[in-house]
């Protein structure tokens, strides 16, 4: 048992530099390039303009450990990644919200220290040692140096790291297979909904040309309509959320009289009423044209998930949609909000809603464009039959996805427990690794660096069929 500082040759903060100009810009890693469990996730790293002295001081080398110093989440404070050959080849630097640790390799194995810093035992230390200011946990080089570490002999460090490489790789592959299965289940749900809301449930039904090129043939007795013809008859049945100064942070109060429904509900379909922002009844009256009701369709208007739609559950207060959302209610005599919501999901998945957005950097939907969207209207009785079928099928899919998610959480917990047990001496791994495995420790490609690497690992895993 000792303090980490006695085994370090470097313990230094990072740099940020100036805006890039496209000439000799340098990758500067931020905490977003790290996952909570200490792996790399390099998708769109920041490019910065650094001076020669900054690059010299902050360039990462193989074996360096990079620690997140500031975060609003205990899951991310102290997360640590290890620089391997693949990362070092990028010649990256790191930001001033990160700390670089370089261990004395005559006394400690970097990969062993990496496992130790990502163990539950070390992360709890960091959580206790971090300073709390303005809601953010903060670490610094001094705090990191004071951490207690457990260091066996060098050969045993190598044996532990080798054992954990092998066993965590097995767990990671199982997690990747569960993630792949979730993706397949989600695709299956999309396919079933798309088929049901455009072709119906009867494969023998007579078909006709819809007159819409991308839609193709539809059941002969279905009506091809547009959103503007199926929305409810009252004036505010299809509206934007409040614009600009009509709804700002200063209007939000605790335990107000009306909820503000954000666009993330349209994306997830999940809502936590205890965390919703609320406004007074007086302010609600000034923006009541944007009122939404239980059963209304909320549509994301801007951002990456524009066009996503979900049905509001029962509300115990009045509500308005936020400025980044749309609200739609339809004519209950011809169709229902639930049916049109499924139509909108199909239109989003099929890419038709994407064609409506403007060409700016921040894509946004307009009421005019949405009103022109083509929708299919079967008889009410058939709509209800299809919706019942989709609810039953969706429930089965959701249950399977839930099982996969539970399996992933259990595997992650097992992975963390295994690492903690190994680096704290709770299990003796010396008889479970061969000399050849130990000798190949530094060559083991156990760190994932991009989404493509994960996809590659999934592709190499046993093939998962839709039936499975």
Question: What keyword list fits this structure?
Answer:
four-stranded antiparallel β-sheet, five-stranded mixed β-sheet, alpha+beta, 37% helix, disordered C terminus, 14 helices, 468 residues
Put the structure in a nutshell.
With 468 residues, the protein is α+β, with helices and mostly antiparallel strands.
Chart the SSEs and their pairings.
Layout (H helix, E strand, L loop, with lengths): L1 E2 L4 E6 L12 E4 L16 E3 L3 H7 L6 E4 L1 E2 L8 E3 L2 H4 L4 E2 L3 E6 L6 H8 L2 H10 L1 E3 L2 E3 L2 H5 L2 E2 L4 H46 L7 E3 L7 E3 L3 E4 H4 L7 E3 L11 E2 L4 E4 L1 H6 L8 E3 L1 H6 L4 E2 L4 E4 L8 E3 L6 E4 L3 E4 L8 H13 L17 H5 L2 E4 L2 H44 L11 H5 L11 H10 L8
Parallel strand pairs: 3-8, 18-23
Antiparallel strand pairs: 1-12, 2-9, 3-4, 5-7, 5-9, 6-11, 10-11, 13-14, 15-25, 16-24, 17-19, 18-19, 20-23, 21-22, 21-24
Helix pairs in contact: 6-10, 6-12, 6-14
């Amino acid at each position: 048992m000792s303090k980490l500082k006695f085994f370090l040759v470097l313990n230094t903060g990072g740099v940020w530099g100036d805006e890039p100009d496209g000439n000799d810009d340098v990758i500067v890693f931020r905490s977003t390039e790290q996952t909570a469990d200490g792996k790399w996730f390099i998708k769109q790293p920041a490019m910065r303009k650094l001076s020669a002295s900054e690059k010299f001081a902050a360039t990462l080398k193989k074996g360096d450990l990079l620690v997140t110093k500031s975060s609003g989440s205990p899951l991310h404070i102290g997360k640590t990644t290890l620089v391997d050959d693949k990362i070092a080849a990028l010649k990256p630097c790191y930001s001033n919200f990160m700390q670089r640790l370089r261990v004395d390799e005559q006394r400690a194995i970097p990969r062993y220290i990496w496992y130790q810093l990502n163990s539950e035992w070390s992360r709890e230390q960091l959580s206790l040692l971090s300073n709390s200011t303005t809601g953010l946990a903060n670490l610094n080089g001094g705090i990191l140096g004071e951490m207690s570490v457990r260091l066996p002999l060098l050969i045993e460090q190598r044996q532990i790291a080798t054992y954990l490489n092998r066993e965590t790789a097995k767990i990671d592959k199982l997690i990747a297979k569960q993630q792949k299965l979730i993706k397949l289940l989600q695709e299956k749900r999309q396919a079933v909904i798309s088929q049901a809301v455009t072709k119906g449930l009867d494969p023998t039904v007579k078909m006709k040309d819809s007159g819409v090129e991308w839609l193709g043939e539809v059941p002969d007795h279905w009506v091809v309509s547009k959103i503007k013809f199926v929305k409810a008859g009252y004036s505010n049945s299809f509206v934007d959320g409040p614009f600009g100064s009509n709804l700002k942070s200063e209007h939000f109060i605790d335990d107000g009289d009306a909820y503000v429904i954000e666009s993330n509900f349209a994306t997830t379909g999940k809502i936590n009423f205890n965390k919703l922002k609320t406004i007074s009844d007086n302010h609600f009256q000034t923006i009541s044209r944007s009122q939404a009701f239980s059963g209304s369709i909320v549509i994301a208007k801007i951002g990456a998930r524009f066009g996503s739609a979900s049905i509001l559950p029962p509300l115990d207060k009045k509500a308005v949609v936020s400025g980044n959302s749309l609200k739609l209610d339809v004519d209950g005599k011809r169709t229902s909000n639930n049916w049109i919501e499924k139509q909108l999901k199909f239109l989003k998945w099929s890419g038709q809603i994407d064609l409506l957005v403007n060409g700016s950097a921040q894509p946004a939907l307009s009421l005019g464009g949405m009103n022109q969207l083509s929708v299919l209207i079967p008889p009410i009785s058939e709509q209800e039959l299809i919706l019942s079928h989709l609810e039953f099928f969706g429930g089965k899919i959701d249950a399977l996805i839930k099982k996969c998610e539970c399996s992933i959480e259990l595997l992650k917990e097992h992975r963390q427990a295994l690492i903690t047990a190994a680096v704290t001496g709770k299990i003796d791994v010396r008889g479970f690794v061969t000399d050849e495995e130990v000798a190949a420790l530094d060559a083991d490609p156990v760190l994932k660096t991009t989404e493509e690497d994960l996809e590659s690992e999934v592709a190499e895993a046993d093939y998962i069929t839709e039936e499975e």
